Amino acid sequence: MTEQTTLLDQERWEGIYKLMEHPSMLTPDCTEEPEKLKTFLHSMKILVIGAGGLGCEVLKDLALSGFTDIHVIDLDTIDISNLNRQFLFTEKDTGRPKAEVAAEFVNKRVEGCHVTPYVGNIKDKPITFYHQFDMVISGLDSVDARRWMNATLVDIARDGQIIPFIDGGSEGFSGQVRVILPTVNACYECGMILIPPPVTFPMCTIASNPRVPEHCVEWSLLEFPKAHDGRKPDGDKEEDVLWCLKCASERAEKYKIEGVDFKLTLGVIKHVIPAIASTNSIIAAMCVNEAMKIAMNALSLDNYCQYSGAEQPYTNTFEFSKNETCLVCADISSEIEVRKDAQFDEIMTKLKENPEYQMKNPSIQLPGGIPLYMRALAQTHDNLQKPVGDLFESGTELAVTDPVFPQGMFLRLKVKFSNDE
């Protein structure tokens, strides 16, 4: 710790230091000297994933809590619709990368704190990139991205480096925070069975029997490519949203359905749940509070906190137990059972639709690395319609990879045949 930093600390983080210098319920097992804790606090290298509504709050809280080596990664650019809740941005920043603008704002505002921005997708970074951090705080709005980050940190933990993963999320007036110590307690994947798969509507319902306004908007999304040379609608382009709104409104009028408006149309296109600024602020504060506990060698959340503010501010904290059959951290084979004469496509369907797996685009190999199905390998596509009994024997352990897993990670899937009846 430099002399300049020490002088800044005494003025800016005096309140934080009091927590370190005086024994309290916050640090019942702390045996470190206060000066060592201060040094650790200021030297911790923290990665914040996402600079959106939650990420902006997390960055602000970290910077004002004494963390001085902060890194942030985000692939999005600033849109005018972000400004009501992402307070690190202004109208003049529209179109610029969120990570860069957020870093510039905090670096200018909080002397002694340095935020390093990265513009891009977390999946594009090599695993060595994540080895450098002491802690990761997630402000993601994607289940897939969370699963990937969780699996990556579990993979790193198996090499002997445990990087705490603090995951925050908000949906309207509700939110949650969990503290994941990879391979030690329940990981994100352990709770996948409690996360419902994305809502989809049957094509026949959308096409011939729409009943709710969402069906009408989904119809407009199917019609959009036909009128725009195969291009999909972009929720960040107002003209695309307006086109879909007009199409959906005409559809709704035909079937006497009410409720189609701009907000609903935009929400369906972008799969958006309205963000509440106050919820983001509360969840971010919880995340940074847990980061402070870890930095101070105190007892952190064990390990899940649910916030419900729809009717009244309420939090429920509980321990989420490890799933002994978790696809990521249990390191065991998963088993499924199918009929011997079932088409191989049935296994693909189970991997995509079963709440325990929720995969996106699995590729499957036989023992020895023989490809059974790979999207990029056209000669394997015929296997989807073949009976599984013609492809392998009962009890065969298949290797399954998917975009939700980091590169090099796979699921060992043992397939057993049920008896014909």
What's the helical proportion of residues?
Answer: 25-40%
Name the beta content range.
15-25%
Q: Any idea of the CATH class of the largest domain?
A: Alpha Beta
Distance between the termini: 73 Å
Average pLDDT taken over every residue: 84
- By CATH, the architecture of the largest domain is named 3-Layer(aba) Sandwich
Count of helical segments?
A: 14
**What is the number of independent domains?**
3
Rg result: 24 Å
CATH fold title of the largest domain = Rossmann fold
Please write the string of helix (H) and strand (E) elements. HHHEHEHEHEHEEHHHHHEEEHEEHEE
- Spatially, the strands of the biggest sheet line up as 3-2-1-4-5-6-7-8
| Sequence stretches where pLDDT stays below 50 over 5 or more residues | none
Say how many strands there are: 13
Secondary-structure content class: alpha/beta
Q: Which sheet architecture does the biggest sheet show?
A: 8 strands, mixed
